[in-house]
Amino acid sequence: MRIVNLRRMKKINKSKHIPFYFYRIPSPASMTVEASLVLPIFLFAMLIIAYTGMLIRTQDEVKNTMTRIVNEASAEVGAGLEKTAASALYYRGKLELYMGGTGLSTSLLGSSFLEKNDEIDMIVSYSVRLPFNLFGIINPRFKERVHSRAFVGVDKRETSKQDDMIVYITDTGRVYHMDKNCTYLKPSVSQITFDDIELKRNRSGGKYKACARCAKGVAVGGGSFVWITNYGDRYHTNRACTEITRSIKEVKLSEVGSRTPCSKCGYLH
After folding, report:
1. pLDDT tens digits along 220-243
2. Are 63 and 146 spatial neighbours (Cβ–Cβ below 8 Å)?
3. Which of 13, 35, 213, 246 has the CA that lies 20 to 30 A from 180?
């Protein structure tokens, strides 16, 4: 064990101007005091880190649970149980079932279920109780939100979409058209002499017959003019015949009545 000569050390300190405490030997008591000051700070910092991780994990659990509940509610709507999925009690019961062991105090304030456009907007507010006062906060509150549209079935949505689709009809027509510029809806009219009617063919290769509206029972002379269309199968003695001069209307598909789709444009969509 090394023995320090204090008198000698003092002389050296005076000659070299070195502080005496530079050579002081640390005592166990001083180390104990330092440890007693640093250890609580260290433990408190580790405690904050641990509880921060706990809060993040709790947020993930709440979010995943809400997503599961909303997906199940959407499936309920698809199965025809809209009334069940529109009740707040349904979501409250699901929360208690899936998160009953967490001890969280939850609220559905601000949520809406199937109020418009088959949408489920689930908002959960909850508080987490801490075992200590963190910067004046004992029970920090959080809010999570999951928004989705309920599954009401592909057939139901497609039917609703089709019913609102705009189609085109005429007053005397027996079909509806998807394309406003369909050649059956706006035929290309040509004027020819009646003598040439036997030689003419439409785009499908068919012959022209007398129009039941304007040429039925009408005696047509050899040099008389008649009117035909590229895709039609009738000749017309009156250029203003409603079969070739049509008033086009825009209506919803649900309003076409007994009309069938046009064979040319009715199956485009």
Report:
1. 877 788 888 887 888 888 888 877
2. yes
3. 213
